[in-house]
Amino acid sequence: MKIGAISLGCDKNRVDTEKMLARLTQCGHEIVSSQEEADILIVNTCAFIDKAKEESIDEILWAAEQKKHGVKYVIVTGCLAQRYEDELKAEFPEVDAFLGVCSYDEIASTVQRISEGDRVVNTACKDAFFDKRVLTTPYHYAYLKIADGCNNHCTYCAIPSIRGGYKSEKLEDLLREAKALSDDGVKELILVAQDVTRYGIDFDGKPHLFELVRALEQLDFEWIRLLYLEPEMVDDELIEFIANEPKVVKYMDIPFQHIDSGVLKRMGRRTDEAATRAIVDKVKRAGITLRTTFICGFPDESEQAFKKLMTFVKEGNLDYAGFFAYSREEGTPADRLDGHLPEAVKEKRANRLIDLQKQVIKKRNRSFVGKTVTVIYDGIDYDRQMFVGRMSTQAPDIDGVVYFTSEAEVNIGEFYQVQITSVDGVDLFGRVENEIDFGN
């Protein structure tokens, strides 16, 4: 059959989708890029916060509507299906199958069963490791999910109840998957997990991230990026490792979530203001780009605590930051706290911080004008009639881009020296000076 897929939420979910599609191609199914061609639509959902759940519901409704226009079957997978199996089964009779977050080994048999008239519901967590992928990113970068689940149990988060406890993939399995990606031309490998710093801690009680990264450096990647480093695990050794490993980009994504010690304690975070500021100071002194995320409007977040967060952002030490209004998740400890704030207040606080961080980025970006930077070419912006790339300090899709021109031919996935000539908000503009050959 011809199968189309919609992947929502995080890049860990994207990897799940890519492996699901690979399982289907192995069975002879064809992956298509539009609903007009598809016999089956798969919606791989997210249920992390309310906005993600709303987006997932909207996409399920849209997919169901396509059954009036030639689509024969709809399959819903992922976190929303795992978390709300009974509700979705009742609310969406148009959906032919629901699979949970680690039921993807059953995707091929599910397609067969629904084609025979069955309705399938399977949220049992029993997947074996699977190393094949159908990349949905440009061919030159890919995500490698090194672990699933989480043991942190932050009071606001439903991830442990959806995906279970922290479970690392075996080193040899990850190296086999990574080698296939390297052989296929991937140049930037992005390691993802709910917390990559704890990789391997479930093996023998100690992390094995350094061992994994050094083994990956033996493959033909140019950049290795680490996403989602829990602050209590960020020590001098990790900072030194990222600063000095030859293929690891000098970039750390550390989700601080807040700066006020009282708010952090209610969140169940294992850090406070002093420890957070110490991390920021050490990371910046090591010359590493810092990205983080914050939750705004957590229960009983006072105006004073919010202003402290505003001040922290305004100090300008955070290269990139994402801000999210607190989402009240049923079943979490934070759901039972007093002092929940109105939605309008939470959104207003998040928007104020977003605007403030944009000003910080704009000010920093102006310092790049006249400098020459290394850029990987990702694609073309046809509206601007310019090429689009990223510095190593910019992760895909979240950190802004470098728009550039070139008098000579350029090739997607190659590295170029780009002289920055101007700034437009959070993005940089420049022109190519020459191509970089990392092999020489």
Strand fraction: 15-25%
Sheet having the most strands: 6 strands, parallel
Shape: globular
Which spans of ≥5 residues are poorly predicted at pLDDT below 50?
Answer: none
End-to-end Cα distance, whole Å, is 46 Å
Q: Please report the number of helical segments.
A: 14
Helix content: 25-40%
Q: Count all strands and give the number.
A: 19
Strand order of the largest sheet: 2-1-3-4-5-6
> Class by helix and strand content?
alpha/beta
Write down the Rg. Answer: 22 Å
Q: Quote the average pLDDT.
A: 94
Give an overview of the whole structure.
This protein is an alpha/beta fold and 440 residues long. The protein has helices at 11-26, 50-65, 79-83, 85-91, 107-115, 159-163, 171-183, 201-204, 209-216, 236-244, 261-267, 273-285, 303-314, 343-365; strands spanning 2-7, 30-31, 40-45, 73-78, 97-99, 120-122, 141-145, 147-148, 167-168, 188-192, 223-226, 251-253, 289-296, 320-325, 372-381, 386-390, 402-405, 415-424, 427-436. The strands form 5 sheets. A 6-stranded parallel beta sheet has the order 2-1-3-4-5-6, sandwiched between helices. The chain has a 5-stranded mixed barrel with strand order 15-16-17-19-18. Strands 7-10-11 form a 3-stranded parallel beta sheet. A hairpin with a 2-residue loop joins strand 18 and strand 19. The longest helix has 23 residues, at 343-365. It is globular, with a radius of gyration of 22 Å. The N and C termini lie far apart (46 Å).
